[in-house]
Design brief:
The chain has helices at 10-18, 34-41, 60-66, 76-85, 98-103, 107-113, and strands spanning 25-29, 50-54, 70-72, 89-91. By secondary structure, the protein is α/β, with parallel strands linked by helices. Strand 1, helix 2 and strand 2 form a beta-alpha-beta unit. The mean pLDDT is 82.
Length: 116
């Protein structure tokens, strides 16, 4: 996920995921960044994987409900949605301030917020 504005190393992360030897299904949300979305769509997906490239969507809750893993910057809304859904997160490139604090939330705190 790249947030509403589609920022961060989305293309590099996507390319790295496509090198995994085991089959995966990956959904990339590029937000409102049409340039990045089009760039992602031009990358060939190996036949062992399934890829879905999305622009801005209002279906983040549904996507997180079926996600095994969320790879994203730790923005406030994304982090809250992942916590609420219990979706594990791989955090990339937090910006100083709120995102740094969001990425430092201890696993125990995450479980407490999830009601476990």
């Amino acid at each position: 996920m790249a947030g509403g504005f589609g920022v961060g190393p989305i293309v590099q992360l996507y390319q790295a995921l496509l090198t995994l030897p085991q089959p995966i299904e990956v959904v990339v949300v590029a937000g409102r960044n049409d340039k990045v979305r089009k760039e992602l769509q031009e990358i060939a997906c190996p036949p062992r994987h399934r890829a879905h490239i999305l622009g801005f969507t209002t279906h983040v809750d549904e996507l997180m409900a079926v996600a095994d893993l969320v790879v994203s910057k730790p923005g406030g809304l994304t982090t809250s949605e992942a916590l609420a859904r219990g979706a594990p997160m791989v955090i990339v490139n937090p910006t100083p301030g709120q995102e740094s604090r969001n990425s430092g939330l201890p696993a125990g705190e995450r479980r407490r917020h999830q009601g476990q």
